[in-house]
């Protein structure tokens, strides 16, 4: 038992990049690398730490910078066996699948966030989950299904998408949202591009100021807000999901080239080829997260302006 507990502590430490602050009245968790190929989130966190070390007022609250799927990050792969960001379900947490790497990461992160950081109290906790995507361009935010999360997602100024979290069972976003946390995914740009790191860095500064953890007058915050505004020019702001093209592993799916987030699409437009059949758009709207990588459980999504 003791060895297990010691091991658990060692394992948890691997997920903690840095922590700041003393006042437990407000807690802000920023997580990078839930998907192991999405290193930009971890880079953005490392961008912020030096300034925070100089400027953070520890009485404002606590900030935790965490890494998501550590073994997958080491390999630069989205996940090892199972997508960690589809495993956040009570039935998975109740069983102890210790032998499967991604389930092990789930259990460690769950215990770290729920027990150690939040101490089973969620109303004063924020969760910002940093991601990138395989398409080119189109930064956006996804709120969990509660009003506080919606308000934070709206505040970035980038497009934000309702009804997406409900369509993706097993995300950390929905799991913590259901517990009453202010929970938002920030999708910062194309995998492994410097621009994605810059956008994610801006997203973190904005949301820390939004939550009152850093002073909104800091130059880092105002520059970040300017950047988020610039990259969203001409894009719709408030959207909702109308279609998810779900894949299973046996399907041979190939997206047509040239799609990117928020590209307008017409009804019946040919979007992809799947098992030698053309996939047509069931409705008009905007393209979201077209899949241009091997691993992924969704081919694309369609969103509409609200
Ligand atoms: Zn991701």
For the residues shown, what is the average pLDDT?
A: 94
CATH superfamily of the largest domain: Zn peptidases
User: What structural class do helix, strand and pairing data support?
Assistant: alpha/beta
Query: What is the CATH architecture annotation of the largest domain?
Result: 3-Layer(aba) Sandwich
**How is the biggest beta sheet arranged?**
6 strands, mixed
Strand order of the largest sheet: 1-3-2-4-7-5
CATH C-level name of the largest domain: Alpha Beta
Report the bound ligands by name, code or SMILES: zinc ion
Which runs of at least 5 residues are low in confidence (pLDDT < 50)? none
Order of SSEs, N→C?
HEEHEHHHEEHEHHEHHEEEEEEE
In helices, the fraction of residues equals 25-40%
Radius of gyration computed on alpha carbons:
19 Å
Describe the structure.
This protein is of the alpha/beta class and 306 residues long. It folds into 2 domains: 230 residues, Zn peptidases (Aminopeptidase, 3-Layer(aba) Sandwich); 66 residues, OB fold (Dihydrolipoamide Acetyltransferase, E2P). 35% of the residues lie in helices and 25% in strands. The protein has a 6-stranded mixed β-sheet, sandwiched between helices. It starts with a helix and ends with a strand. Bound molecules: zinc ion. The site of zinc ion (ZN) has 4 residues, from loops. Zinc ion (ZN) binds next to loops.
């Amino acid at each position: 038992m003791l060895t297990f507990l010691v091991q658990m502590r060692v394992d948890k430490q691997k997920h903690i990049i840095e922590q700041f602050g003393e006042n437990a009245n407000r807690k802000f968790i920023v997580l990078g690398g839930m998907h192991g190929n999405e290193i930009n989130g971890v880079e953005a966190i490392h961008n912020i730490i030096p300034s925070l070390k100089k400027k953070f007022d520890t009485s404002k609250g606590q900030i935790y910078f965490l890494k998501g799927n550590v073994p997958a990050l080491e390999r630069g792969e989205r996940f090892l066996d199972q997508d960690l960001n589809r495993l956040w379900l009570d039935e998975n947490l109740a069983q102890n699948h210790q032998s499967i790497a991604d389930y092990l990461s789930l259990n460690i992160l769950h215990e770290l966030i729920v027990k150690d950081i939040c101490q089973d109290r969620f109303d004063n906790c924020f969760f910002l989950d940093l991601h990138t995507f395989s398409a080119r361009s189109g930064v956006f935010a996804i709120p969990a299904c509660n009003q506080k999360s919606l308000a934070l997602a709206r505040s970035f100024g980038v497009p934000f998408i309702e009804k997406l979290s409900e369509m993706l069972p097993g995300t950390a976003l929905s799991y913590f949202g259901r517990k009453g946390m202010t929970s938002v995914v920030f999708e910062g740009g194309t995998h492994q591009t410097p621009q994605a790191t810059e956008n994610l860095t801006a997203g973190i500064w904005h949301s820390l100021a939004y939550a009152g953890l850093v002073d909104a007058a800091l130059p880092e915050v105002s520059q970040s807000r300017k950047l988020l505004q610039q990259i969203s020019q001409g894009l719709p702001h408030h959207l909702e999901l109308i279609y998810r093209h779900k894949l299973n592993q046996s399907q041979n799916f190939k997206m047509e080239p040239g799609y990117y987030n928020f590209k307008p699409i017409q009804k019946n437009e040919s979007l992809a080829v799947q098992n030698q059949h053309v996939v047509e758009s069931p409705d008009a709207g905007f393209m979201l997260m077209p899949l241009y990588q091997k691993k992924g459980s969704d081919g694309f999504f369609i969103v509409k302006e609200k």
